[in-house]
Specification:
Blueprint lengths: L7 E2 L20 H12 L2 E6 L2 E6 L2 H9 L2 H4 L25 H19 L5 H15 L4 H18 L5 H15 L21 H29 L7 H9 L4 H6 L3 H18 L1 H13 L1 H15 L13 H13 L9 E2 L4 E3 L2 E3 L4 E4 L1 H4 L51 H18 E5 L29 E5 L2 H24 L9 E6 L2 E6 H4 L47 E4 L19 E9 L4 E9 L7 E3 L1
Parallel strand pairs: 1-6, 3-7
Antiparallel strand pairs: 2-3, 4-7, 5-6, 8-9, 10-11, 12-13, 13-14, 14-15
The structure holds protoporphyrin IX containing FE.
Protein name: Cytochrome P450
Cofactor: heme
Pfam family, one: p450
Amino acid sequence: RKMAPGIQPLPGPMNLPFIGRVHDIPAKASWLKFYEWSKEYGPIYQTKMFGSTHVWISSEQIAHDLLSKRALIYSDRPMIPNLPDNRTSGDYLALLGRTETWKRQRKLCSHLMHTSALASLHDYPHRERNRFLYLMYRDPSKYLEWIEQFTSRTVSRLSWGTTHPAQMLRHTTFGLLETISPSGALPNIVSFLRHVPACLSPWKKKENARHALEDRLFRANVGFVGQQMAAHRAEPSFIKTFLETKQSTDEKERTKWGDMDEAMHVVGLMAIAGALTIGSPIQSYLLAMCHYPEWQRKLQSEIDTVLGGQCPTWEDREKLPMLRAVVKEVIRWRPPVPTGIPHAVEKDDIYNGYLIPAGATIHALEWGITRDESMYPDAETFNPLRWLDPAYPTFREPLTQYPNLNGFSQFGFGRRTCQGIPIVEQDLFLTMGGLAWAFDVRKKRDPITGTEIPVHWNDYTPLLIAKPCRFDFDAIPRSEAKLHQMRAMYDGAARDQAQEMDDAEGFELFGDFMTVEHGEGAEKVDVGRHLHHHPHHPYYPQQHPEKIGNRDGEYDADESDHDVLINVRDSSPEPGLSFRGDSSTEPSEPSEPASDKEDEEEVKILQVDKKLRVWKVESMVTVLDVPGAWRWA
Ligand code: HEM
């Protein structure tokens, strides 16, 4: 391509014909390679992949100069080869091109988020956090499960006022992450594979089936909120807020936010974003505490001194700057979206004498941005002090307000910045604060030699949203008093859930198996199992054989929903039947020996709704740490 005098192409590695540098990009932790190149070619450089230009930015200043200050031409999104209508379809706001649909959807998203944030997210993160802490106490080795339950249940409540869709949301959302991630589906790297017809393309078949399932889930959820509103018992939610505007007597207000179908997708995307991302920093917090016990002690000391033994609530945020600094530093130390979500530039542009060609994909390389030594000295070290001490360039006053997550580079740039920060901020403040208040998290010790068992430093999953691969640690409750408090907090959360169960009449539950119709016919999807058989899923047995949690060699997602049992299998239990097992055991197979006695409990079926295939149970749980004590759950 001919350049005007004085203009040059961006620096970057030499490209091979046609494939560019595809062969150099590792399947795992690709961001480390892109960061390595930034050391060689500078804070802005380009690579080619199958003919398209990718620009990588590792400086916050340059990202702002282009993506924020020149937002007029830098706010588009690239086409995702494995989801080729992502720019136009309107199903996923975050992936839409710079279109009128995107502008409308972004406004609606912002309105719903704002309304909910003003009401402190209806206390949902707090209620779910209390449940989460107790589950962590019962079995910290299942932390991946408890964290995913926390994030998906919280965002389900926010979106639809109920936790019921949470499990299915996890399933469909994880599938979407694979569909769109460069390392999740081959056509995203070898882009011409997108032309393979649907009947021959395993990627298209899989995505079509997933999409159909997701569509059914979102429609059922919206229907549920409508029914609950008609019965005057809907809990607050994004969809409820939207439907209320539809009931306004003011015609302008009624039409302002678009139609129901669009709102369904906007809220669906918000739920997807919430279920996907927030687990990453919660897991990274546990990793950080294993490596930096001194910061755990400092954080605990702040919480104990300021709150006199109470567990942090959202109202305490102004008083706990160190907790906010830990939240922010965890995100900086291990960025949840290390390669960023790419923008696309719509016109040729010149930056400092370099050409950025129209159509190039622009990546704000979040991993590189957080390693800029001029802003983050000693960047590899987890150091919350950089947000609290005036000696650091990132310090900001007043400490009642800063540090916070608003405007943080890790949530993107310009007109496409993340819209979920109020949820992220509250979820992380409560979970990290709750964990520090309740537990000493530390490396496990070998029972015989007493030596510490090593924990990895930076082994993360490879998809667009990166999470630490499973590691073992101890989470020791800090005192007997805290244990009692945790149980009381959990009882409150369990009561909420029992109430919700009563309200769930009319909600369409999904079976373990369901038939999904799509273009190529019908497919039987095993939802329960499916969740654990994604090749990149951290629980996936083949990929991480040593990292599997439970006695069956495979992690059972429903295992510890002890408080109420929602069983969706075909057996038809009768009220009054009692059996021993854990609450996810089939009552039709009571004789099956439970190999793990600790999980056993007395379960009695109280009520059965055959149409919904829901049982409500009463279960007597052994409280393991107080021998001989029993508790009704
Ligand atoms: C730790 C959690 C999260 C992180 C690190 C994160 C990060 C990001 C990033 C990097 C982007 C792209 C920004 C850009 O293109 O410049 C983004 C976009 C977005 N995020 Fe988040 N996010 C998180 C959680 C959430 C949550 C809970 C929601 C729920 C509402 C959400 C909603 C969105 C939306 C709607 C967009 C798309 C904005 C647009 O394209 O116009 N995010 N997020």
